[in-house]
Write a structure and sequence with these properties.
This protein has 348 residues and is of the alpha/beta class. The chain is built from eleven helices and 15 strands. Helix 1 crosses helix 6. The longest helix is centred in the C-terminal third of the chain and has 16 residues. The structure holds threonylcarbamoyladenylate and magnesium ion.
Length: 348
């Protein structure tokens, strides 16, 4: 049974995970954002297994995880020019934490990780189990979110087992992810930084650190921002550089059931008894009782709690008999931007 592959994090299980990775195998690992599908980033055969296990297009590059900004330096070129060195320093101040930085790569990075691109995405995670694992490994860890391509990212070990249990040697259980959304991805550029994916670090935090942040505008819509990279980018052909905007398609990660924001749902179309309703703060009991299934993500509407529980709730709603998932909306500020970015994609 693959449930036996889940091992509670301990010195022994972390050491075992490090051995499995060194042996070229795949391990499900906890991070503060979402669970990752880990492989030795310096082993092309092991990295290839990630793409196979997820059903991920080979031209969608991976993030490499390192234990400190210093150990990142072997894999990146950030000393020159001056603006790049300066921005790198500002970015590194967010580490350890949920920020991924796209920068020019060094020749030491294996091509399988970057899908042939001249850049590499790097981050220093803060989850204590992931940090112990990185300390136990003599190599950086390549890890996408540990879900089959195009499905919702996993925020606990059981989600990893459900999606990829037969593809991994082991799943290291580090509890429920604290952030619950993926890392924010930025590209460093001379005239400021460009947001490629909203996530655990808010645009406001980036603005404070970098002065300005370029947001990708969604074609045809007013001021909504769309990630330039997906959770798992869609099928596409050709090398990354041939893509004008990697992962620009709206629907990247979705439940199997249709999902609507509450403003777009009409009770005449789908009866509440057929609706799985996800709210950010509790509804009065009599209102909640109308729905086929109901879950509140926070007692107070706290958006950090909403982010933490969002993916679990979408998975649960997806597993009900209901025919439609209807979810709340929030302002696109702070963590709300990343929450709404995910909801937009799931409802696309
Ligand atoms: O929170 C996270 O970032 C999680 C945890 C496990 O660290 N990882 C994660 O990885 O979300 P993944 O592969 O699911 O999403 C990473 C995104 C992909 O859409 C990929 O296209 C983009 O990062 N990416 C990776 N390398 C890139 C590069 N060199 N240039 C532009 N985008 C890149
Ligand atoms: Mg992903």
């Amino acid at each position: 049974m693959s449930s036996s592959k889940i091992k509670a994090a301990s010195n022994a299980s972390i050491a075992e995970a490090a051995r499995l990775l060194a042996d070229g195998q795949l391990v499900g690992v906890p991070t503060e954002t979402v669970y990752g599908l880990a492989a030795d980033a310096t082993n092309p055969v092991a990295v290839h297994k990630i793409f196979q296990a997820k059903g991920r297009p080979a031209n969608n590059p991976l993030i490499i995880h390192v234990d400190s900004p210093e150990s990142a330096r072997r894999w990146v070129h950030v000393d020159h020019p001056r603006w790049l060195a300066d921005q790198w320093q500002r970015a590194a101040a967010f580490w350890p934490g949920p920020l991924t930085v796209v920068v020019p790569r060094s020749a030491d990075v294996v091509d399988e990780v970057t899908a042939g691109a001249p850049t590499v995405a790097v981050r220093v995670p803060s989850h204590p189990v992931m940090r112990s694992l990185l300390a136990a490994c003599e190599f950086p860890i390549a890890a996408p979110s540990a879900n089959p391509s195009n499905y919702v990212s996993p925020t606990c070990a059981e989600h990893v087992r459900q999606g990829l249990g037969d593809k991994v040697a082991m799943i290291l259980d580090g509890g429920e992810c604290e952030c619950g959304l993926e890392s924010t991805i930025i590209r460093l550029q001379r005239d400021g930084v460009e947001l490629l994916r909203p996530g655990g670090i808010s645009v406001e935090q980036l603005q404070d650190a970098f002065g300005s942040v370029k947001l990708a505008q969604r074609a045809g819509k007013d001021d909504t921002v769309e990630s330039k990279v997906g959770n798992d980018a869609p099928e596409r052909s050709g090398p990354l550089e041939a893509m004008p905007a990697p992962g620009m398609l709206a629907k990247h990660y979705s439940p199997a059931k249709p999902l609507r924001v509450v403003a777009a749902w009409q009770a005449e179309e789908v009866d509440p008894s057929r609706v799985a309703r996800i709210v950010f703060a509790p509804l009065p009991d009599c209102e909640a009782a109308r729905f086929g299934w109901y879950r509140s993500l926070s007692r107070t509407g706290d958006l950090n709690e909403v982010a933490q529980h969002l993916f679990t709730a979408i998975r649960q709603a997806d597993a009900t008999e209901c025919s439609l998932i209807v979810i709340d909306q929030c302002d696109r500020s702070g963590i709300g931007r990343a929450i709404m970015d995910h909801i937009d994609r799931a409802s696309a």
